[in-house]
Amino acid sequence: MLNHPFSQSPIIFVQILSMLNYGNSNLVETSLHFCGNKNNGEEFALSNRPLELSEQMSFALADFLLQPFSKLFEEYRFTAESVVKPILSQVFSAEKSLHDASKALTEHLYEVSEHPRIGNGDVLVCYVKGLAYANVFSDGIAVFKFENKENFLFTDMDSEGGSFTLKPGIRNSRFDKACLILNLEEEEGFRSFLIDNSSRGEEAHFWKERFLGLTPRQDKHFQTKQMMNVYKDFVVTELPQQFEVSKAEQADLLARSVNYMKENERFRMQEFEQQVMSQPQVISAFKGYVEEQTSANDYSIPDEFEISAPAVKKQGKFVKSVIKLDKNFHLYVHGNRELIEKGFDESTGMHYYKLFFKEEA
Questions:
Q1: At residue 178, does pLDDT exceed 80?
Q2: Residue 144 phi/psi, 5° resolution?
Q3: Are residues 209 and 232 in the same domain?
């Protein structure tokens, strides 16, 4: 196998990293194309040569393009059926130029852009060196598709006066679709990170699955996320069907689960069941629900795993321990269920909650 001319990246700094570090990165080759929607009769357009970037621009563009990936913790892997993986492997091994690979990727993207709601847009493919992830240095390939542009204000001032213009551009905090592939663990499908902010409905999986052919890596982040999701779904949808449970009790069960995840470094299924649910019949129902969901969706949740703090923080935002009372009140439950008492007032014919507390915050 040939050595890629870009693979010999100098190691300029060494530190323990918990996520992607792109501070020493630059783009050594970049190509830009256009991809239309095949279903809507649009075409695609391929450029003849890579973009010509100055050294200053290559570093500045790397900072602009890679910054959103530094906030991601969830990793993906290419499946064996992925069309994209062998193309990238040829680039990393110097069997194919990045520009030729970028054209092949754009053509493949065009072929899978069949849903009428998939927007057309610019396709940018970059070869990056100087990346580091989890204290490991690596080159990478970044693929972007920009479907939506915003107007930005540009000012121009000189001795005669000034002017300003509005021009459409791209904001890096809301990339439509992007993927960063590190040249690490090729046999396992490469370590990859995914951004998809624009897909909804039936077309939601085309970027991740039909184009890239990615699947989540079943690491601690994935396990923490799946465990919190399946428990939330159990409490919200399944539990009320099997037991008489109040909204306050549901809110308490959700709050208990988030607190467990925040207070422990390792998840232990039996400990979680006893501390969070405690009642044998509820635990039994939960076990059955977990088995049903993991089997139907082809993933597993081990009885013990390391808890991912970033996953808890992110998923905790979606676990709302809230009791909604008509359109008048929302009760946010964060702690002891015993401090909430539900009753019925016969004189008004309305339900009520009584809250016990020591002082107002």
A1: yes
A2: -125, 145
A3: no
Same domain, 200 and 93: yes
Q: pLDDT at residue 185 above 50?
A: yes
Q: Which helix (H) or strand (E) holds 268?
A: strand 266-268
Q: Is residue 66 located within the same domain as residue 204?
A: yes
Looking at the fold, whether 96 and 184 belong to one and the same domain comes out as: yes
Q: How far apart are CA 208 and CA 204, in angstroms?
A: 8
Q: What is the DSSP string of 137-178?
A: EEEEEEEEEE---EEEEEEEEETTEEEEEEEEE--GGG-SEE
User: For the CA atoms of 80, 85, 91, 95, what is the dihedral angle to 10 degrees?
Assistant: 40
Tokens representing 120 are 């057309």
Which tokens is 62 given? 């790397």
Mean pLDDT, residues 236-257 taken together: 87
Report whether 332 contacts 321 (CB < 8 A): yes
- Boundaries of domain holding 90: 26-217
Residues 213 and 319 in one domain: no
Q: What does the pLDDT look like over 73-100, one tens digit per residue?
A: 889 999 999 999 999 999 999 999 999 9
Q: Which residues pair with 175 in a beta bridge?
A: none
Same domain, 341 and 305: yes
Q: What is the pLDDT of residues 275-298, one digit of tens each?
A: 999 899 999 999 999 999 988 887
Kindly state the greatest CA–CA separation across the chain. 85
Phi, psi of 349 (to 5 degrees): 70, 30
Same domain, 213 and 239: no
User: Within this chain, do residues 71 and 203 fall inside the same structural domain, yes or no?
Assistant: yes
Q: For residues 23-50, b (16+ Cβ closer than 10 Å) or e, as one string?
A: ebbbbbbbbbbbbbbbeeeeebebeeeb
Q: Which two tokens stand for residue 3?
A: 């050595």
CB 185 within 8 A of CB 229: no
- Start-end of H helices in 239-327: 239-242, 247-263, 269-272, 280-297, 309-316
Q: Do residues 6 and 137 touch, judged by C-beta distance below 8 A? A: no
> Among the three residues 196, 217, 238, which one is the final residue of a domain in this structure?
217
Q: How far is CA 51 from CA 102, 124, 197, in A?
A: 12, 10, 26
Please say which residue of 164, 198, 217 terminates a domain.
217
Provide the domain count of the chain.
2
